[in-house]
Amino acid sequence: MKISESKKLFSRAQEVMPGGVNSPVRAFKSVQSEPLFITHAKGSRLFDADGNSFIDYIGSWGPMILGHADPRITSEIEKAVQKGTSFGTPTEGEIELAEMISDAVPSVEMVRLVNSGSEAAMGALRVARGFTGRDKIIKFEGCYHGSVDALLVKAGSGATTLGIPDSPGVPQSFTEHTLSAPFNDLDAVIELTENFPDEIAAIVLEPVAGNMGMIPPEHGFLQGLRELCDREGILLIFDEVMTGFRVDFSGAQALFQVMPDLSIFGKVIGGGLPVGAYGGRREIMLQVAPAGPVYQAGTLSGNPIAVSAGKTMLKILKEEDPYADLGRKTATLNEALSDAAKKKGIPLETCSMGGMFGFFFSEKKVRNYEDALKCNRDYFITFFREVLSRGIYLAPSPFESLFLSSSHSEADLDQTIEAFQHGLAAI
Ligand SMILES: *Cc1c(COP(=O)(O)O)cnc(C)c1O
Q1: How far is the centre of ligand 1, averaged over its atoms, from the C-alpha of 120 (Å)?
Q2: Residue numbers annotated as active site
Q3: Could you read off the pLDDT of 174-187 as tens digits, one per residue?
Q4: Which residues have a Cβ under 8 Å from the Cβ of 190 and sit 6 or more positions away?
Q5: pLDDT digit string (tens) for 10-26?
Q6: DSSP string of 380-397?
Q7: Domains and CATH numbers, the chain
Q8: Strand partners, 181
Q9: Is the model's pTM score more than 0.85?
């Protein structure tokens, strides 16, 4: 595989941007390699500066559930651009996107649009604290909620990959109200609530963990949290930035039938443009300014171009309901990978739900962050590099989920499965 152009671009990038990238995992550090510079993408494919093409399983880290450059979305963006790129005033499109989100997700009665998942997480925490008049929050080890100061405690994603779960630059005092528990461990959460009675504003989690690799909630875990929150007057916040409109049109909360008080969105709802949102029960959201006293604002929030992309995305997803088909495809990939690993005697654990999937090179079932960290990283690196050289672009870290789009064809799956077999053989 020719990579000379990407190499050149990466050395140039490192001169002017920390690590040569604008978001850490892009740098390929955890696969001890250098990133490829992408020039364009179409459908299931990415094309790089050296003319290589790849079947893409990152999908911009989640948003591109219809594949890249879907003409139905790009044409709406083009139309929106012609009308002006930002007004800083209310527009009808914002109402429509908010209506679409609240129609799709039953627990969401009101929505605030922002520009990223991180910003949405920040807003949701603030309103939860404002509403309850409590300061403390509980998060889960390995769950990632964006680069939010108070939530960079035992965070997953890039923070795991780089081994900096607690970042310098975050004052101790900013995280003194952040408590953390192992994912899937209801008893640990109950213990925290007993130790801090009437002090906990919210429990925040990814209902299906996706930023420490993919880990599903165990039976009764989400329901147990819901009951605990009801008993203790704590708000339950589902961070569905990754899972929202990805595992199901109505999110993981619909699949598991557990309703949170607040939900956080991003990724898919922006149709590939920068959008985030938080929303939930009316009485809580009415605390947000200007309806209420909890301040939160954004110059480009509800940007008309981003909103047009998001609206079109959700409209298509509602009409086409691709989730069963996506689920069949991700299960096919996982089954093929599992079978091949079994034949070779390589320990492997897999998980898939709708358009999201993941695997660990692990002897035992992965229930939480501690288990995830025990997976065989060397196996992953070898596997990753081998499949990349065969045109399959996976997330460059063992602690990320993988995403498939409705434009991935059967031929794409066949090519991927063949590359997976070579990847395992290389281990
Ligand atoms: C990606 C992600 C975020 C952060 O969203 P950004 O748009 O990158 O700020 C927050 N929470 C979860 C669960 C995510 O997957």
Answers
A1: 9
A2: 144, 239, 267
A3: 888 999 999 999 99
A4: 228
A5: 999 999 999 999 999 99
A6: HHHHHHHHHHTTEE--SS
A7: 4-65+322-425 (3.90.1150.10), 71-320 (3.40.640.10)
A8: 140
A9: yes
